[in-house]
Write a structure and sequence with these properties.
312 residues, alpha/beta, TIM Barrel, 11 helices, binds prephenic acid
């Protein structure tokens, strides 16, 4: 395989540098753990069942090497579970399938030990490797995600790194901010609806602020614009609410209390963060945004008599 190791394609999902944050165990891909059943289920039957429920990209974690033929035939990728990370015979056999491999970090594994597993895959001729930080055993009782390690693994290896959130989406935004290329929920889908929502929200709204996408085709470019628009819509809505608060606090609010000097200053400040657009192009945009906010504030207060004087 001579693919660019910075981005790994798992069926229709690509995770990695320059690509959107994928949610595995959510909208973008699913995964199935055969380890959870301790080898008591037939791999081909379990995978066939998963396939009836989900037609998109499917990753499967084997219980043992005996599961690999079924995975080779019916899955889009293989997960080396944290518990098996240093089972090198399994790692090498899994890599030889030629499918993308997701290597979860063992709970006590160091960065070097984790990265070495990717090198085992490469030595088998398979460079389609994504890493997955799945946490260490800590004083908190369960496993705790190490986001510093996630970041270091991404920088050191250049490979995509996923964050395994399990059924708790509360660290989704932190993982995206730390550089995660994908968020891994589950396995399965049970009980993860709230976590999936948090992961989707972080991947959609936060990711455009903290990572750049480099789309290579029209659909991908439109997808990237959709994600920027989602972040923009969230901020515009929040801005409108704050502008409404200002109208209530000002002595004279609404259109009657418009402060053009303040508007000029805020456009100039924004132009410093948006040098491509500059003041000239930003001015009409912000004028429309501000007027929408004022209109909304007046509508919500039932007329133009805004501000404390109006309240009196
Ligand atoms: O800062 C104010 O005085 C506001 O009323 C807020 C705001 C804005 O939306 O940013 C709206 C109208 C003013 O002309 C200037 C700015």
């Amino acid at each position: 395989m001579t693919e660019d190791p910075c981005a790994v394609r798992i069926g229709t999902l690509t995770v990695g540098h320059g690509h959107p944050v994928g949610v595995i165990g959510g909208d973008d891909a699913r995964w199935l753990s055969l380890r959870e059943a301790h080898g008591r289920v037939a791999a081909d039957e379990a995978i066939a069942k998963a396939r009836t429920e989900w037609a998109g990209p499917l990753l499967v974690e084997p219980f043992s090497a005996a599961d690999l033929p079924a995975i080779a035939g019916h899955a889009d990728g293989v997960v080396i579970g944290a518990a098996w990370m240093q089972d090198f015979a399994l790692v090498r056999a899994a890599a030889r399938l030629g499918l993308p491999v997701v290597v979860q970090r063992g709970q006590a594994a160091t960065l070097e030990e984790w990265l070495a597993v990717a090198e085992y895959c490469r030595a088998e001729g398979n460079d389609r490797v994504a890493l997955c930080e799945s946490g260490s055993r800590t004083h908190l009782g369960g496993v705790t995600l190490d986001l510093a390690l996630l970041r270091a693994a991404r920088e050191r290896s250049g490979r995509p790194v996923l964050a395994a959130l399990g059924e708790d989406g509360s660290l989704a935004a932190a993982a995206v901010a730390a550089g995660a290329d994908g968020l891994m929920l589950g396995p399965g889908t049970a009980g993860t609806a709230a976590a999936a929502d948090e992961a989707r929200e972080a991947a959609t709204v936060l990711a455009p602020l903290v990572r750049r996408e480099e789309p290579g085709c029209l659909d991908a470019a439109r997808g990237a614009i959709d994600r920027v628009d989602a972040a923009l819509a969230t901020l515009l809505d929040r801005r409108a609410a704050l502008a409404g608060t200002v109208q209530r606090l000002k002595p004279v609010g609404g259109f009657r209390g418009r402060d053009m000097d303040r508007e000029r200053r805020l456009v100039a400040a924004m132009a410093r963060r948006a040098p491509r657009l500059g003041e000239e192009l930003l001015r009409p945009v912000m004028n429309a945004v501000i007027e929408a906010g004022l209109r909304l504030a007046e509508e919500e207060r039932g007329g133009p008599d805004l501000g404390r004087r109006g309240d009196g």
